[in-house]
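Please review this one:
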Amino acid sequence: MSIKEEISEALKQARRDRDVDTKRVITMLKAKLTNELKATQGVEENDALWLNVLAAYAKELKKALASFEGLGERAAEAKAESTFELVFCEKFLPTKLDEAATTALVKTIAATEGITAKKDIGRLMGAVMRGHKDEVDGDLVRQAAQLVLS
């Protein structure tokens, strides 16, 4: 089943269950997809486009959650909303390597490429992302590269 079909089924189920939160997330995602289709000519609605939209929205949500951290109780509702939306998006995204696996991968590539100087962090990140972009989180790669080269 394609991502579009899965999301359509989730929307139907949310309507049946009167699940306002899920309907809100799906409506937001469909609006973002429509904007992407209008902004880029010649692009078809397919799983790759859906994955791009989901990944971009998940990245926005992670940044929003990070900004809510220092606000305490004032941001509790917004934080819960964003967390729900992020969990929904992550159901459709491919799983990424965790922190330990990312660090191990960065160490291996650093050794293979002969990168040892802290000034070459960009080169190391480029080498990791070039071969493993879909498997790793860019922020974790940066953290692991800083750790490995320190």
